Amino acid sequence: MNLKLRAVFVTAMAGLFFMSAHAAELQVVEGFGCNFNPGKGMKDLEDVTAYYVANRAKIASPALQKMRSVVWQPMLGNVEVDLVWFNGNLTYSEWGEVTDAISGSEVGAAIQAKFDEVLTCPASGLAVNEQLFRSDKAFTEDESVTIESFRCTLNPGKTMADSDAAIAAWKPVFAKAVASIGAASYVGRRVPIIGGSGGLDLGYFAVWDDATSYAKGNAAFLADPDNTKSGALFAEAHRCASALFSGRVMVAAPN
């Protein structure tokens, strides 16, 4: 993984960052699609991450100290990497500061070398993150989650305004479904700045407590006849490929 944070992998368009502050500036997420090197696995990545957390304060970057990192691992769908590593909780300008600070630091180079021993990351990208829905029930910082993600390409003649219209029809129905099962859920939209592939225009992701709440929430949504309008609008706006991931926090943001 290039900890220099070149630019993020927007393959799953995925999240788990629950961004809030800095409303006046774009929130961005960078990601890396990675495979484990031969003989390496999650325990090795956990060890390298612990080294990074223990040493990042030595890098002169206030934004780096608050950066949050998560990992997604494929459960279902056509995903060609072992995992996706995301860095978030940053504004666009903070991302630039972090990139320069790591690139110009001997400590950053040492951390990068350790990550490179564990992972090879053929894909990367940078995307704008937009919150679409957040349940009243909160996720806990240390729990694993289930994430449904969609990579989408706008249909000919369609624009982000058509995505907005579909979201407006979808949101109240989805909120009702989530409330009916008492689940924690977060939904976001990502638009690539750098990276992406195959004509990718945007993506959506929905984060759930676990596979059970994911399935129950979607079942409740699909059982509501009011979902028909949003489904038609989404289909008219774009075509999407979906995948299911398990996600976990690797580096928590400070309290």
CATH architectural name of the largest domain: 2-Layer Sandwich
User: What is the C-alpha radius of gyration, as a whole number of Å?
Assistant: 18 Å
Number of helices: 7
Helix content: 25-40%
H and E string: EHHEEHHEEHEEHHE
Task: Indicate the multimeric state.
Answer: single chain
Strand content: 25-35%
Structural class: alpha+beta
What does this structure look like?
This protein has 255 residues and is of the alpha+beta class. It has two domains: 27-128, 2-Layer Sandwich (Alpha-Beta Plaits), CATH 3.30.70; 132-246, Alpha-Beta Plaits. Helices cover 35% and strands 33% of the residues. It contains seven helices and eight strands. The chain has an eight-stranded antiparallel barrel with strand order 1-3-2-8-5-7-6-4, surrounded by six helices. Helix 5 (160-181) runs antiparallel to helix 7 (227-237). The radius of gyration is 18 Å and the shape is globular.
